[in-house]
Design goal:
Layout lengths: L3 H12 L17 H11 L5 H12 L7 H11 L3 H10 L11 E6 L2 H5 L2 H11 L12 E3 L5 E6 L11 E3 L2 E3 L4 H16 L1
Parallel strand pairs: 1-3
Antiparallel strand pairs: 1-4, 2-3, 4-5
């Protein structure tokens, strides 16, 4: 609980453009404060407002992720503790706290996909993108240094009869194999060079 003196210190820090909790200057973000404000106003009072705000702000970011200053501003403007915002952002696998690639490749790791070769697809994608040390139990995703690709796994797409399944930029590809994946990655690289 804030004491009256603490409340005025928090207010003074906010006015100075500083983080009201830590007393440090807030980091720059790729999203304009007015864009964040408009997004919050758009969903104010609606069911699921926090999820909708976070989803829209992530989609608006050029690297499709939620920066810490954005999360802090959302907490402040929605009157919620930062811990609650962070809990929501880390609970749902849809939300990203790190910059993402231009293209997102999602490899299904469900039982049907696994038994039909999704591990080989995941390993091939990682090798072709320069990461031979990826361990899905340690890190849920990998983004290439050039931010062209992000590879992640999902527990199940619910497309088991079409296994193995991957999604590229939201489009589902069924009955994938290493050769089809290799061709798809090469095509995306060629298109990026244009």
């Amino acid at each position: 609980m804030l004491l009256p003196a603490d409340a005025s210190a928090v207010s003074n820090r906010k006015e100075a453009g500083m983080n009201p909790v830590a007393g440090t200057h807030q980091s720059e973000t790729a999203l304009a404060p007015s864009l964040i404000e408009d997004t919050i106003k758009k969903y104010k009072g609606k069911p699921g407002a926090l999820l909708s705000v976070l989803e829209e702000l992530q989609n608006l970011h050029p690297h499709k992720y939620l920066e810490e200053p954005v999360l802090a501003r959302v907490a402040d403007r929605m009157g919620l503790p930062q811990s609650q915002i962070y809990s929501v952002a880390t609970f749902y696998s849809y939300f990203n706290l790190k910059p993402q690639g231009k293209h997102t490749i999602v490899v299904c790791r469900g039982t049907a996909c696994h038994t039909r070769g999704s591990l080989a697809l995941l390993q091939e994608a990682m090798a072709r993108l320069g990461n031979n040390t990826f361990n899905e139990s340690e890190e849920p995703s990998f983004t290439t240094e050039d931010r062209l690709f992000t590879v992640r796994t999902v527990a199940c797409f619910g497309q088991c009869a079409l296994a193995p399944v991957i999604a590229v930029d939201g489009q589902i590809y069924s009955r994938m194999n290493v050769q089809l994946l290799t061709n798809l990655l090469a095509k995306l690289r060629r298109e990026a060079k244009k």
